[in-house]
Structures are given as C-alpha cells and as structure tokens.
Amino acid sequence: MKSLIFSGQCPQCQMGNNEVEMRQNNIPFWECPNCELQIIIEKGNAVILRHRGEGDFKYNLLKFNLDCVLEETDSDGYSTGIEILDFEHLENYLETKVQHPKEFSFAKLIDNYVNYKFENQSKENYIIQSEHFKIDFEDNSIIEELIKRDRNRNQNQLYAHSRLYRFLQIILEKYYKIDNSWLPEMGMSKIEHYLCTKHFPSDERKKINSNPLFVKQSLKELIFDLIRIIYLDQKTLLSYDPIELQEIEKEMK
Q1: DSSP H stretches of helix in the chain
Q2: Which one-letter DSSP state was computed for residue 25?
Q3: Cα–Cα distances in Å, from 199 out to 134, 204, 238?
Q4: Taking Cα atoms as reference points, which of 227, 216, 67 lies closest to residue 142?
Q5: Which of 23, 24, 25, 39 lies closest to 84, judged by CA?
Q6: Which of 30, 35, 2, 6 lies closest to 18 in space, CA to CA?
Q7: Fewer Cβ close by (within 10 Å): the C or N end of the chain?
Q8: CA–CA separation, 89 and 16 (whole Å)
Q9: pLDDT of residue 1
C-alpha cells in the first residue's frame, strides 16, 4: 500500500478537499494557517505533531518543496516511526491522537465579524464566537466602562483606554481591506502609536509591506492586542525595546 505523501499542503485540509499551503511558524514548524496542524521534518519524514500551533508565523513565503512520508508522534512529540499509510489511518490519528482544532478563538471571532460586517455573510458564526467570549465589536457601551477604568486609575490620557474602541473599529476595517496605510499617523494617542509601531516596526515594514499576507497577519496581531486591552483588561507590551519600554512605564505613571 502506497504511503501518503506530504509535499507542503495540509493533510487535514486535504481530507476536506481544501488545498492549504502550510507555512513556517516562529518555532519553526510547518503549520497550517487554516486548522493550525503542525508538522516537523525528521530523518526525511513529515511527522505530525499532536498539539496545534498558535498561528504565530514568520514573515516569509518559503514553501516546502519535498515529498515526505507522513508519520505519527507519541504524546511527548517524538516520532514513533509509525507511517500513516492511507486516509483512513490519517483520519483516525487526527481524530483520536491529535488535538482537535479550536472551536473558539480570537482569530475566528475577528474573521467571522469582518465576513458578516463587510462581506454581507451570515451573522450566525460571529454571534457564536461573540457569545462565547462575551465580546461584541458592535456594542459601544464598552466605551463607558473604559472611561470609568481610566478615571479609577487616574490614567495618563496619552495612554487612555477610552479611545481604543474607536481605534479598534478602524483597524477591523483596515484588516478587511488589508490596508496598513497611515499606521501610525498624526493625532494618535501614545498607546495607539506604540501599538502600531510594535506590529509595524520600521525595520520590518518593508518586509511586511512586500506581501498582503504579511500585512493582514500584522493587523490581526494588532487586533489581538486591542482585544486583550479593551475587553480583558490585560497589560500588553507596547514595545519590544527594553529602553523604550522603561520610558513608556515612567510616562504612563
């Protein structure tokens, strides 16, 4: 019986007749941008990991260009040497041994929202994600909560959260349009400015702008940060530069 061959396309998506090229994530493993299945190459074989990725991709379009036999891994992520010989074997392994794709995620919340909002698709999928996370991008009552949060903390207005809901609406539309123009721009608050330069740093901007896929990736990561700040009230790094971060911390106080 002929073994299944991995040549760069996600095996799980292929079973659903969906051809999705896997990309290198930052570990780096090969990861499917659709279902987050992960594969590593060991001794010339494509080993399917049991845990899913996080959608944290490198800014490159490197494609896998070899033909490799698929293999199972054990619970610790080591190759078992057991080849996956047919689609029935693959389906059973994915169903019984591999972590199932996430039913709920911020990525699905975002994508289902923009599909409904800007593509006139059904709102149902967005509502499912929205109700799970208790996050509704269309409910502007959050602004009052953010104003109270800023007031209670005597927040420096340069870093106020109360403006971020409006900013989120702008970025969601830019995400749909795959448009990072004017990020950052004049008139932004400090927190908006730093979030933009964090996800579109000057030394990476040319690379990011080289492909719409990278632009969309960076915009989505910016939206993730905005969700954490606005809805989860989580502290989020505004810079990866330790010296700049110290200055930000001083200014915020």
Answers
A1: 11-15, 87-96, 106-119, 124-133, 142-152, 164-177, 190-199, 202-209, 212-230, 242-252
A2: B
A3: 26, 9, 9
A4: 227
A5: 39
A6: 35
A7: N
A8: 15
A9: 43
